[in-house]
Amino acid sequence: MKHLRRFLTLTMVLLFAAGIVLNFGGCSKEFSLDPQITGEEDTEDLPSRLSKKGDDFPQYAEHTFKFDKKKGYYKGGMLNTTNGSKFKIKNGDLTPPATWMDGKKTREYGDPVTITMTVDKINVDKKEEQIVFTFEPSGCTFDPSAELTLSWEGLKAKKKEAKKIYLFDLVDENNEEIAAAEMDTKNKKFYMWIDHFSRYAISKGR
C-alpha cells in the first residue's frame, strides 16, 4: 500500500511539472523582443528620429536623384530641412563623383545618387555658436550652378544683430567669409549658387 501511494504521489508531481513546461513553451512562442530592448537599431529610420522643429537640432534631409537613360542625365530635385534650408538643382545639372559609397555599396555614374544635408548647432565657446551644414556624397559638381539656401533659424540672434552673423566655408583653411552669398536678414537666410559641395557654417559672435 505504501508503495502504491508513493507511486501515485510521484506520478502527480511529474504531471504537474510537465504542465508547467508545456504552458511556458506556449507563451514563449508568442513573446518577441522589442528591437529597442535588444539594442538593435534600424539605421534607415534615422531621418524620422531627428528634429522636426525649425529651432531644434540636428536636422536631416535627403533626396534621391535618378538617372534618365533616354536623355542621358540626372533628373533635378530639391531637399529641405525644417529650419528652412534648401538645396535645389535642375535636370542635367548634377554630375556625381566617378564612384561613391552608398552605405556599404559602391556606386558609379548612372546609379541613383542620394544627396543628404545634415544641419547641426554647436557652441564653439561662451560667445560663439554656429549652425553647421554638411552634404554627402562629396565630389558632386553642378553645371549650371545649384541653388543653395542656408538658414540661421535657431541661432540666438535678433534681427538687429545681423551684423554679427557670418557665413563661411569650413573646408577653407582660413575659414574665409563667403562674400558672394546674399543675406536676407528678415527671413534669417543666406542665398547663393554653388558648383560643388563644401561644409558651411553660419556663426554668431565670431
Any idea how many domains? Answer: 2
Give the topology string: H per helix, E per strand: HHHEEEEEEEEEEEEEEE
Low-confidence blocks of residues: 13-51
Nearest-angstrom radius of gyration? 29 Å
Give short descriptive properties of this protein.
single chain; alpha+beta; Chondroitinase Ac, Chain A, domain 3; 3 helices; 15 strands; 39% strand; elongated
Give a brief rundown of this model.
The chain has helices at 2-30, 35-38, 46-49, and strands at residues 59-65, 67-68, 73-74, 77-80, 86-89, 94-95, 99-102, 105-108, 113-123, 129-136, 141-151, 165-169, 182-184, 189-196, 200-204. With 206 residues, it is α+β, with helices and mostly antiparallel strands.
Task: Explain what the structure shows.
It is a single chain. With 206 residues, this protein is an alpha+beta fold. It has two domains: 2-31; 46-204, Chondroitinase Ac, Chain A, domain 3 (Sandwich). Helices cover 18% and strands 39% of the residues. It contains three helices and 15 strands. It has helices spanning 2-30, 35-38, 46-49, and strands at 59-65, 67-68, 73-74, 77-80, 86-89, 94-95, 99-102, 105-108, 113-123, 129-136, 141-151, 165-169, 182-184, 189-196, 200-204. The strands form four sheets. Strands 4, 5, 6, 11, 13 and 14 form a six-stranded antiparallel β-sheet that branches. Strands 1-9-10-15-12 form a five-stranded antiparallel β-sheet, with no helix packed on it. β4 and β5 form a beta hairpin. The longest helix has 29 residues, at 2-30.
